[in-house]
Amino acid sequence: MAVLSPPRPSSGVTPDDLLNMEDGHRFELIDGKLVERNVGQESSGLAVIVNGRLAGC
Fold this sequence. Notes:
Layout: H1 15-20, E1 27-30, E2 33-36, H2 41-55
Antiparallel strand pairs: 1-2
């Protein structure tokens, strides 16, 4: 069985580059491009609800 590696992004930014960035937690790598994550009150509140329900399992 052959093991395939994911294709390298064409922009030159790799997942390892993102992980090594000091502020990499603020970005996502989408189709080889860095995209700033937009986290606001609504999405954070939803995350709290989902985590609370999962913790109650």
